[in-house]
Each structure stands twice: as C-alpha cells, then as structure tokens.
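Hello again, I could really use a second opinion on something today. I've been staring at a protein lately and its backbone has me curious. Please have a think about how the structure follows from the sequence. I owe you a coffee for this, so here goes:
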Amino acid sequence: MSQHHATIRWANAGSEFLGGRYLRAHTWSFDGGLTVPGSSSPSVVPAPLSDPAAVDPEEAFVAALSSCHMLTFLHVARRAGFAIESYEDAAVGDMAKNERGVPFVKVVTLNPASSTPVTSDPRPRPWPSSTTMPMNSASSPSRSRPRWS
C-alpha cells in the first residue's frame, strides 16, 4: 500500500506563547509540492490569533470526506455506465462538544449533485441525495469512526 506525507510548519512570531496569545497560522506542505496556509478555526480561536483566510483542520476534514465520497461516486458511476459531466458537493461539518467539553466534528453532511449527458447509458441504481456521517462523540476527533445513517 502507499504512504501519504504532510509536513506542518509553525513558528512563534514573538507573541506571548505561554499566555495563550500566539498566532495559530501555519503551513501544510504535501508530498506533491503544494503548500497550503493553515490555521485554527476562527470559531475556536478568534481572529487575530487565527487566520480566517487559511484552511482549518475542521474544513480540511470535511473536504477530505467529500473528496473521497466524490472519487468513489465517480468510479461507481463510471462502472455502472453513467457518463458524469460535473459534480459538486456543498458539504457541511457540524461541531459539538464532547462530555469533557472538547469541541469536535460531530456530523458531516454531504450534499452531492452531479449531471450526466442525455447519451449516457445508465443502469439505474438508487443514490441518496444527502449522506450524513455522524461521528462518535465518545472518541477523540482523531479516533472517530464514521457511522452511516
């Protein structure tokens, strides 16, 4: 199987680290050469200590689930004879606090929409218009296991 690498870089910009008043902006560098600005979510750590223009871990988690779902859908649709022309998903992740008061992504709702040309030769298969993946609140966010509902 393959390995996937990401390098996360952060440096203190001379702010009050021990007092909690430090910038959360950092970068994510991937093995293909792309570097993305990252930060904590402004809903968790308000600006100016976070960077609202950067990708936060919660957004990245939602995007990763949506991307995996799309790639699976495209593969399954192709094998079933559907010629997909476009795909869009307005995915939404809902935050909650666990029993210890720690915020985590509790539910991710995928809202995929795709189009096929009239000439497509589909073999009809039911496909939900919305897929929700609640996460187990008893687990830490990194150990959550998806449960389809």
About this structure: The CA atoms of residues 8 and 99 lie 29 Å apart. The beta strands are 6-9, 26-30, 35-38, 86-89, 92-97, 103-110, 112-115, 131-134. The two ends are 29 Å apart (CA to CA).
